[in-house]
Prior knowledge:
- The protein is α+β, with helices and mostly antiparallel strands.
- The longest helix has 23 residues, at 146-168.
- It folds into 2 domains: 7-85 and 225-247, Phosphorylase Kinase, domain 1, CATH 3.30.200.20; 86-207, ATP-grasp fold, B domain (D-amino Acid Aminotransferase, Chain A, domain 1, 2-Layer Sandwich), CATH 3.30.470.
- Helix content is 29%, strand content 32%.
- The strands form 3 sheets. Strands 8, 9, 10, 11, 12, 13 and 14 form a 7-stranded antiparallel sheet that branches. A 5-stranded antiparallel sheet has the order 1-2-3-7-6. Strands 4-5 form a two-stranded antiparallel sheet.
- It is built from 7 helices and 14 strands.
- Thymidine-5'-phosphate (TMP) binds next to helix 2, strand 12 and strand 14.
Amino acid sequence: MxxxxxxxxxxxxxxxxxxxxxxxxxxxxxxxxxxxNNKKKGVISGKGVLNNRxxxxxxxxxxxxxxxxxxxxxxxxREQLVREVEIIPIEVVVRNIAAGSISERLGIDxxxxxxxxxxxxxxxxxxxxxxxVSEEHITAFGWATxxxxxxxxxxxxxxxxxxNGLMLGVGIRLVDFKLEFGRLWEDEQMRIVLADEIxxxxxxxxxxxxxxxxxxxxxxxxxxxxxxxxxxxxxxxGILPEAGPQDIKGPKLVQ
Length: 255
Ligand code: TMP
């Protein structure tokens, strides 16, 4: 169970708690998994521990190349300290290979390489099932300004290039992924930074050789070996928690 601290927000896979200092939050990663906007629910045991590590690793690597992120440091197995940002209510999806909703919507076979990387925007609303929106909707309704969107698009493509190379280096194809951004104020200045998480919950990751899926599609599509897939991503990135898989399920309950 998460420790008792003031809960700011509970999402489907994470909980945000008040942080130790103003302007900080603690992001707690749960094992809960949902798909199709909460219609399918389950638990992927050990997922929270692995996602905490994977997102830490990727955000730190991105910060190294100058991409600003909300990540500050990992606190323990399931928690990380992050900067409090005002989340822009847009899910930014970058696609390299057709899969999932683009394959269904446009009738493109899954696995077809796209002519170039495609960036899509979805309005974050559980009630509306995250509908796809265009820049026109985003700027007209004031969810973000044209300047914000320029920054977001540039960051998303840079992140895509970097993560593509990083994943290829460990034998993984980055098919697509979802990003969220937030506004961070520092002495009257506003900056847009990468927020939320980058994990196998929010990416499609396929083995380069076999096309085996190493991501949440295994849960969405009832393919089995879900835990193993998340572990495999962490293992390839060289960040599997030291004690191995048995440790990540947490302490055994002693009766
Ligand atoms: P999609 O093909 O279902 O539109 O998903 C594209 C990518 O975005 C995929 O890697 C999964 C990720 N994603 C999320 O992280 N959250 C979501 O709510 C959805 C719909 C997709």
